[in-house]
Design brief:
228 residues; alpha/beta; 10 helices; binds thymidine-5'-diphosphate
Length: 228
């Protein structure tokens, strides 16, 4: 497909949305057409499923049922938004994708073989070319989330944020393990560093992965210039 598909993964409070916004600016500065989206959600059908999942209304289904809902949302998102955008030649930056199901629902006890089947059905062959894992110790990530909920009146943690620290630690390990297993598409960035540092690391990864598309314009653009 003519477009490019980049996903961002990480635990709570990793700073994905800030970095996605900065990467969007960088790519646009380089003349690219960029779509920013997120999971669960990103398309009208999937956004309905998102509210069921994040409110905790679907919790009674158990982790396997929740995994099915994440997959259903993903299937709609792929068909309605991601595929058409890539066919048009856009760059799609997605906040979480199938790796989040492997990690979150995997950690919650859903069998990996079962998750693989769901993933195959949901993504319909559409896999990210680059996945940026923003790795942050849960103590740091969770304190950022706590600060954010105080300032934006978002009403406290959602269904998946509101778990014991040990759960967040296990998710972090699973993300790191996955990044090592599929190193060909993953870049791990240290999310405990300041946002400008992370921004530069993300840009480096993107330039390396897509040097053919970004060639010639990159080396002289300092990260701080494109972020403002
Ligand atoms: P969101 O508010 O988008 O959180 P974040 O800013 O951390 O990305 O909420 C998404 C939540 O859903 C998040 O806690 C991770 C969880 N999740 C899963 O458990 N499985 C999935 O497949 C996806 C996409 C998200």
């Amino acid at each position: 497909m003519p477009g490019h598909f980049i996903t961002f993964e990480g635990g709570e409070g990793a700073g994905k949305s800030t970095q996605i916004a900065r990467l969007k600016t960088f790519l646009e500065t380089n003349g690219k057409s960029v779509i920013v989206t997120r999971e669960p959600g990103g398309s009208p059908g999937a956004e309905k499923i998102r509210s069921l999942l994040l409110s905790g209304e679907a919790k009674d289904l158990g982790p396997r049922g929740e995994a099915m809902l994440f997959a259903a949302a993903r299937a709609d998102h792929v068909d309605a938004l991601i595929k058409p955008a890539l066919e048009r030649g856009d760059w799609v930056l997605c906040d979480r994708y199938a790796d989040s199901t492997r990690v979150y629902q995997g950690e919650a006890g859903v069998d990996q073989e079962y998750l693989k089947l769901l993933e195959t059905a949901a993504v319909a062959g559409l896999r990210p070319e680059l996945t940026i894992l923003i790795d942050v110790p849960p103590a740091i990530g969770l304190s950022r989330v706590a600060k954010r909920s105080q300032t934006d009146n978002s009403g406290g943690p959602d269904r998946f944020e509101d778990e014991a620290v040990a759960v967040h630690e296990r998710r972090r390990k699973l993300f790191l393990q996955l990044a090592l297993e599929e190193a060909y598409r993953f870049t791990i960035v240290d999310g405990s560093r300041d946002q400008d540092f992370v921004e530069k690391a993300v840009q480096t990864a993107v330039r390396e992965a897509f040097s053919q598309d970004l060639g010639g314009t990159n080396e002289t653009v300092p990260a701080t210039q494109v972020s403002r």
